[in-house]
Write a structure and sequence with these properties.
InterPro entries: ATP-NAD_kinase_N, CERK_C, CERK_PH, Diacylglycerol_kinase_cat_dom, Lipid_Phosphate_FormReg, NAD/diacylglycerol_kinase_sf. By secondary structure, the protein is α+β, with helices and mostly antiparallel strands. It has two domains: about 90 residues, PH-domain like (Roll), CATH 2.30.29.30; about 350 residues, Tumour Suppressor Smad4. About 25% of the residues lie in helices and about 30% in strands. The strands form four sheets. Strands 12, 13, 14, 15, 16, 17, 18, 19, 20 and 21 form a ten-stranded antiparallel beta sheet that branches. The protein has a four-stranded antiparallel beta sheet with strand order 1-2-3-4. Strand 1 and strand 2 form a beta hairpin. Helix 8 packs across helix 9. The N terminus and C terminus are likely disordered.
């Protein structure tokens, strides 16, 4: 029994000896001993994962043999976003210090789509040993192509409760620094400031752009990125029929009131979750709309409302002196109390769903996209609200989304038309958004899946002119485009453009809670 002990020890310390041939990426790169959680562990690094198991004593006692059974723990390298050498330093000492080991920082999935970071400490006092492991770990992390190394950041200090600056410097910036991401920060001073900077800055110096703010701020930055792409491509920015894609991805850090785009991307309003999606390089292609009049491009955006949703925003903007929450509540109640429909004509091109397959199928699909005159449909009447959305538009008040029938990148828009009805029935429809019930299951609500929409308001004249409730003093109609107020007097043409921009985040259709594969030590 005594002679067998060394062989038993080797089997425990080196379990890889009897393992089957490893797949590509699983071949061991390094193997060594570190102290993890006050226990000596046999640690193995491959390109895909880091795994370790406690080293057992040569002759465990009967009482401790069960407790000391080697349980291998694993972390996937794709979940690691930073590695640092850990040193003991005296107060005020910024460099050098006694080496203690290596700290690995991992992105951890929590409940309700939330992400957080955790640290795993690998303790070893050997400088050469730790430096070798540190170099190999850094090489693996540098191999993840989508992870940004340099970011242009816009912070809107006026968003919501003026929290954006605090959120960025207290929650976001430390994670960017930990991940060795260089940042160039612009704190916006006025509406349109981010747009002006994006038109002039050297975008090729950055791997991505980040906006810390609400829906309006994000919309401005997204519009600026896409407008810059058209300018760089030499396109006419007054009329953009086939826009080119944004040159770099856009990251969204929620710091507003509703944060629709952040909810839709991450499934939650959580600054750390949003930051970690950016750090990890999780990229999602997203459809974008162009909003145009017959003479010019108004905006790139993701969603719009005409009627009730736009008039509520217009009234809120007139009461900017009020606190954000009170202003929006007041505008909602006041617009609901003065509820009136607006007469307009809607023309839309339904989405032509054809199976991908033969060359003939693809030719039919191309013809369908062109949209001949007989494919366009028209409806005219009195509408309380018209919503046009290329993304589901999730938020805390609408957990299923304002447009649950569409997706982030399926090349279509959801057209939701609310016909004239009583105030009581309209309120019932609005309340349904907060529940799991179908908010469109009303006789006065119609939904369509479309590629293009034209909205043409019908002005009344003579004695009925006072019923033009949407018009402002300049004769323009308000539009709510991604939480930004725009005013136009003429027809607005909305087109969807598939996967026109990359956003840092994940498709909320694919969000699932995952099991933790290691303990944070």
């Amino acid at each position: 029994r005594a002679r067998a002990a060394p062989q038993e020890r080797r089997r425990r310390v080196a379990p890889l000896a009897a393992a089957p041939p490893a797949r590509a990426g699983d071949q061991p790169l390094l193997r060594g001993i570190f102290e993890i959680g006050k226990r000596s562990c046999d640690v193995v690094l491959s390109a895909r994962r880091l795994r370790w198991s406690p080293i057992l004593p040569e002759s465990p006692t009967v009482y401790s043999s069960v407790a000391l059974q080697a349980q291998e723990e694993i972390i996937e390298m794709k979940d690691v976003f930073s590695v640092k050498l850990k040193r003991r330093r005296f107060a005020g000492q910024k460099k050098g210090g006694t080496l203690l080991g290596i700290t690995i920082f991992k992105c951890l999935n929590k409940e309700e789509n939330k992400l957080t970071d955790c640290a795993i400490h690998l303790n070893n006092l050997s400088e050469d040993h730790c430096q070798s492991w540190f170099r190999h770990l850094k090489e693996i992390l540098n191999g993840f192509q989508n992870r940004p190394k340099s970011l242009k950041v816009f912070v809107n200090p006026s968003s919501h409760k003026r929290e954006a600056t605090h959120i960025y410097y207290e929650k976001v910036a430390p994670l960017f620094k930990l991940a060795d991401i260089k940042t160039d920060v612009t704190v916006t001073e006025y509406e349109g400031h981010a747009l002006s900077v994006l038109k002039e800055c050297e975008l090729q110096a950055f791997d991505g752009v980040v906006c810390v703010g609400g829906d309006g701020s994000v919309s401005e930055v997204a519009h600026g990125l896409l407008l810059r792409a058209q300018i760089d491509a030499g396109k006419d920015t007054d009329y953009v029929s086939k826009p080119v894609r944004a040159p770099v991805p856009l990251g969204v850090i929620p710091a507003g009131t509703t944060n629709i785009l952040a909810h839709t991307l991450y499934g939650i309003k959580h600054a750390v979750t949003a930051t970690l999606h950016i750090v990890m390089g999780h990229i999602q292609a997203v459809d974008v709309c162009t909003f145009s009049t017959p003479s010019k491009l108004l905006r790139f955006g993701f969603s719009a409302m005409f009627g009730f949703g736009a008039r509520t925003l217009a009234l809120a903007e007139k009461h900017r002196w009020m606190p954000s929450g009170q202003r929006k509540d007041f505008a909602f109640v006041k617009t609901l109390a003065d509820l009136k429909p607006e007469e307009c004509e809607l023309s839309f091109l339904p989405l032509q769903i054809l199976q991908e397959g033969s060359h003939e199928d693809r030719k039919k699909k191309e013809r369908a996209k062109k949209g001949s005159k007989d494919q366009w449909q028209k409806i005219q009447g009195h509408f309380l609200n018209v919503s046009i959305m290329a993304i589901p538009c999730l938020c805390s008040m609408a957990p299923r989304g304002l447009a649950p029938n569409t997706r982030l990148n399926n090349g279509s828009m959801s057209l939701i038309v609310v016909q004239n009805t009583s105030r009581t029935e309209f309120i019932k429809h609005l309340k349904r958004y907060a529940s799991v019930k179908n908010q469109f299951n009303f006789p006065f609500v119609e939904t369509y899946t479309v590629q293009e929409v034209k909205v043409q308001p019908r002005l009344k004249s003579g004695p009925d002119a006072k019923e033009n409730v949407c018009l402002n003093a300049e004769g323009n109609y308000p539009w709510n485009i991604d939480g930004d107020l725009m005013k136009e007097a003429s027809e607005v043409h909305v087109r969807v453009h598939p996967q026109l921009i990359d956003l840092y985040g994940v498709n909320t259709d694919d969000l699932e809670s995952s099991q933790v594969t290691c303990n944070c030590i």
